[in-house]
Amino acid sequence: MSAALEAAGDGFRIVGALDFDSVPTLYHATDELLARSPVRLELGAVERADGAGVALLLEWRRQAHRRDVDLTLSQVPESLLRVARLAGVEDLLTGSVSLSARVADPV
To answer: Are 17 and 47 within 8 A, CB to CB?
Structure first.
């Protein structure tokens, strides 16, 4: 199953597989996702993730910072955190380490 970015309350959610196959389509939604601040991105419906999915989330965090948008990731599944941990970027994904001098919001 491919992933979809859906409106969810005061933000968005990703539903499906956050992987190499779905990343290009999701990346095209960057402007929609980061159009306002703050924005919450729920990840609880992510069925599986790989390194490409983690890279997309890190790119969205980088672009959010560049656009001065507060992006909060919520309901991050353990499987996604495991991939981020293996890549050595868990702290960047969860927000305990900032992508810049500004401290990111914790999840």
So the answer is: yes
What predicted TM-score, i.e. pTM, was given to this entire model?
0.85
Q: How many domains does the chain have?
A: 1
In a domain, 80, yes or no: yes
Kind and range of the H or E run holding 63: helix 51-66
Dihedral sign computed on CA atoms, order 21, 100, 41, 28: negative
Q: Answer whether residue 102 is part of any domain.
A: no
- Cis peptide bond upstream of 38, omega within 30: yes
Is residue 106 included in any domain, yes or no?
A: no
The model's confidence at residue 1, banded by pLDDT at 50, 70 and 90, is low
